[in-house]
């Protein structure tokens, strides 16, 4: 099964002013992804933008792969205009994805902003009852609320401006939760994805509380399959490629700048 | 219809190679294409000791191109010989090893060991713009380049020696001639052009290294001009590099005087680019009744005008 394939746009829904839901149908059979893996998607027909863009998948069905993306820059603006029937080239699934937790562990899923997209496939796959902590800047930026509620997990939502759910940052909400649920610390496992400052906060909370876990990282990348060596992050064992050794790393391995 | 070309004593089944630093050690692409089909694989630059490379961010996209400042991250000669070379040997393609060092002694040791190991060719990297020490000094100082090529030529035995030239000089022909006169068997050009990008919101450079090497279609006209100039000024074969994405680009370089070409950034956007280029060169030759692709090398018609208008 070739990880470089052509796919047809089946649907491209505008969810709000800054997010789209893109459904692709691979023309040839495509490999099954694991939660947290990503795809490189061709954004334009010309040389500008030149590089494919990396996106975690949201859902994979037998026929389709679904992506939810935020419009932030030239590539995603072009992707927003993808019409039904358009054929684009895609590489994936790429990267390692989230290791699934052992049965006795309670997963604490901590998502900031679009980080929920990478974690959604994990929540979907977990048979465990997990706790989901999800923060965004404001109500308009919250994604997949309905779907998350339907999955029946313990869901705590917060917004920086208190326009929905609890007020505050998701790291503050996680801290509060852990201080009132001391006993969970020995049996839980953190999975987190979001903006870097938030990930750094979550890491320090995890390390202080002695909780292990996984963090999904983001970096600029040219190829997505380990050739360009452009997408490294600093870890306790040196630079590691986000596209190949990542994007998911043990939370205690990342060396924050 | 023949696609074979010769770089000195090295016979290639076709003129399409991969550019160093864009193709890993071959393994990264083996799931996308049959390495047996390539004229040659040029591997990521190797130094004596492993190098960890520059801090991130290491790359950023620019109009029709990209900047990189990887900083020559590599696993070092020892691991290359032990882990990567045996893998590449399984394939019926030529193996060209790009080498880099801080001193002439380091280059000499690398070339000696690679000659002993029996690789098909050595490509001297004297033009990486992203490391502070060594390397680049040989690429931008004519006398330093001559000394280096001379010494490496003495230590590399029968292994073919290719000198990869830096475009960051005012007259490429002087460097092309210097490499030829010092015994280089072939030239490859161009490496990336020094460039820069700034985030106007944060006022920070987009690369941690501040300066990086520009590659991609944005540099193709410059690369083409330099390949044309260089091939006019030397007798040794010239390998064209710079923004080659498709077969039309590759043919342009060959018409300008390149005996073979390397695909670099093109591999990132289409991991099968090299194979599509080989097929494209074949259909071009068939369409134009060219018996042998060698016949088009340097066959640019210098009289201007009468070109197709493309609207």
Q: Would you kindly provide a written description of the structure presented here, covering whatever features stand out?
A:
The complex is a heterodimer of chains A (257) and B (311). With 257 residues, chain A is an alpha/beta fold. Chain A has two domains: 4-94, Translation factors (Elongation Factor Tu (Ef-tu), domain 3, Beta Barrel); 106-253, 3-Layer(aba) Sandwich (Rossmann fold). Helix content of chain A is 19%, strand content 34%. Chain A contains five helices and 16 strands. The longest helix of chain A is centred in the last third of the chain and has 14 residues, at 196-209. With 311 residues, chain B is α/β, with parallel strands linked by helices. Chain B has a single domain, classed as TIM Barrel (Alpha-Beta Barrel), CATH 3.20.20.70. Chain B has helices at 76-89, 104-117, 136-140, 142-155, 172-181, 220-233, 247-256, 265-269, 273-287, and strands at residues 5-7, 10-12, 16-18, 40-46, 59-62, 65-68, 94-99, 121-125, 160-164, 186-189, 193-196, 198-199, 204-205, 211-215, 238-241, 260-263. In chain B, the strands form four sheets. An eight-stranded parallel beta sheet of chain B has the order 3-16-15-10-9-8-7-4. In chain B, strands 5-6-14-11 form a four-stranded antiparallel beta sheet, with no helix packed on it. Chain B has a two-stranded antiparallel sheet with strand order 1-2. Chain A binds chain B through residues 2-4, 42, 47-52, 89, 91, 219-223, 225-234, 238-239, 257, and chain B through 21-24, 28-29, 31-32, 44, 52-53, 55-61, 63-66, 68, 70, 73, 216-218, 245, 265, 267-272.
